[in-house]
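REQUEST
  id: r-88c1
  op: predict_structure
  target: INLR1 protein
  payload:
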Amino acid sequence: GHVQLPPPQNVTLLSKGFDMILTWTPGEGSPPDVTYTVRYESQERMDKWIKVPHCKNIHRTSCNLTCVLPNLFVKVRARVKAVSGRLQSPWVESQFKEYHLDVELAPPVLNVNVKENIIHVNASFPLATCVESFSWMYDLNLWEAGSEDKKQYEGIFRKNTVTIDTTALKGNYCLSARSSFQSIDFKHSKFSQPVCVLLNPKG
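RESPONSE
  id: r-88c1
  status: 200
  body:
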């Protein structure tokens, strides 16, 4: 009989934190030295499985495909097999996903710079270089600590800085932002952890 390795399980193509990632779990009873090899196929060229150089004979159980995808507006799927010595498992395929439609966002990191009567805020996004050109935006909230009343700044271009006049503000103020992106409809990340600053302390 032909001995095969147990195939990888739970093979899933998912988007997380602006990336498109293939994940899987080892097949039951896999040997400790097992490695994995990944390929992907795009709906532009069906039946052509393309190698992913950085996911050949890897020990980890995920493969970031974001920057190998030739077209972020076309559905792709991926497949993975287990290898150990001369043994191989069958390939296991994921479902189809399209980056532009299925991308899941992560909150931006806020950079807050307090000057005399002004706050400058910009947001940095944990993006792979290949997707930097997409029109990522962010929404910013400003509120007095302890208050529910938030001033909202919406649809700010990723590279743009928001300048807030703080002349009339006194006390502890907090800022938080979320990433947003328009594909078919608007998507948003969760809001970032608040950054709080003391404005115009008395005396």
